[in-house]
Amino acid sequence: MSGAALQSSVLVLNRSFVPVHLVTARRAFGMLFKAIAEVVFIEDGRLGLYDLHSWQEISAFKRQNGLAEKNAEWVSTVSYDIQVPRIIRLLFYNRFPDRRVSLNRRNLFARDENRCQYCGSRFPSTELSVDHVVPLSLGGETTWGNVVCACTECNKRKGGRTPRQAGMALIKPPFEPRVNPMIRLKVRRQKYYSWRQFLDEAYWSVTLT
Predict the structure, then answer these.
(1) Residue 85: helix, strand or coil by DSSP?
(2) What's the pTM?
(3) Topology at the third CATH level for domain 105-166
């Protein structure tokens, strides 16, 4: 379980409690060990801040008394078990994040939820391609408003044509997301529910590292 738990996502806040990016739990523990971050934990509407030592003590208390959250994940060390934090706060960093979402395959597939924008079927990422709605050969550009997910069959059928020329229709028009699509997908899961209190989807664009 520890190996999988160390790959869980942790939301990182700056000193002003503004989301700046996501890291793996492994990296989050490294930041806690170096004392450059602290755990942010919300329980019964109250916010608690913990360094690594105090978080280990809280974890031990919850473990021993059966008070751990239903979706809690744990990492085992030689001498103790410690709960994976969902949110950490940087102690010395107060810059604000870039509000634009990076255009890359991971974010594009997340925006379109791994659904081919022509046939509407969902596919694994390995079976999807990036399609330029207006092909590059016809003057199209690689922008959020001109790229969509397409399955191999639909991409082959469309070829170097526009959807209209190919007699195909888009499920929905492409758009530039205001919040990183990976966040939208993860925050739907119960174990990341606590992130919602720090994410204003109409304003912040959280970038991945």
Answers:
(1) coil
(2) 0.65
(3) DNA Binding (I), subunit A (1.10.30)
